[in-house]
Write a structure and sequence with these properties.
Elements: E1 9-13, E2 17-20, E3 25-27, E4 45-50, E5 58-63, E6 73-79, H1 92-105, E7 108-113, H2 124-137, H3 147-152, E8 153-163, H4 165-179, E9 187-193, H5 204-209, E10 237-243, H6 249-261, E11 267-273, H7 280-283, H8 290-302
Parallel strand pairs: 6-7, 6-8, 8-9, 9-10, 10-11
Antiparallel strand pairs: 1-2, 2-3, 4-5, 5-7
Helix pairs in contact: 1-8, 2-4
InterPro entries: AB_hydrolase_3 (IPR013094), AB_hydrolase_fold (IPR029058), Carboxylest/Gibb_receptor (IPR050466)
Family: Belongs to the 'GDXG' lipolytic enzyme family.
GO molecular function: hydrolase activity
Amino acid sequence: MATDSSSEITHDFPGFFKVYKDGRIERYMNSDFSPPGLDPETGIHSKDVLISSTTGVKARIFLPKLADPSRKFPLLVHYHGGGFCMGSALSTRFKNFLSALASQANIITMSIEYRLAPEHKLPIAYDDSWEGFQWVASHSNGQGPEPCINEHADLGRVILAGESAGANLAHYVAVKAGATQLPGVNITRLLIVHPYFGTQQVDKFYKYMCPTSSGSNDDPRLNPEVDPDLMKLKCDRVLVCVAERDFLKSRGDSYYEIMKKCGWEGEVDYYETKNEEHCFHLFNPKSENIAPLIKTMVDFIKHD
């Protein structure tokens, strides 16, 4: 009896996605869509913007209360996690988190909606992430495409942030901004939360999504230590956040040690949350450890 190609699985990465012989992709978890607008709990107003009509890359911007129309706020540019293949900047999970962060730190936050693997093979997510940051920089003369960035974002105080795969992307953008000497923006902080980097073993999951990668530690996207541009990382200070029970904790620890020992001239801080798992602040909204974690992020963002 002939096998039905619509049901035959050729690749299965539990927790992320399955690939069927006919090319169909099925994710284990799909993101919801939460429309932008006013968040009644924080008073933060969000709006969606189109970054590229060619690629369809979008971003969601979260604005604090604008009591003084002439005031400018630091801008946090965020890259969401999800193993490069799941998650959305337009979901409820990130709307809640980034609204809270914008409110407590009194900043503008902006999350890039990059295209997902495996439909869009890596390094497309990296390219989209960089394009999103270049879009931010295009506002440096006050004549960019988005009025609220022109009028209210202080591009001399920019923070890059991300969790899991998003932390990997944020690091990549910070390095590339320094290596290319991107004008118009000054990155002051890099917030790395529960990061996804590589190990000494071949990461078959990453290699499937990025066929041009070896999937191992000779790829600078997986191992910052071998990146010839690492010392050009553009910011003054890095905070590495890990969780005690996170299956990726060792990768966060390794990243912290690399940044401490590589000779980079900025400051590197470390924060560990005990008895918590990967990205608990997004998946376990009732955790009593969320408030201390966000306070740590806020203090880091505000640190002079």
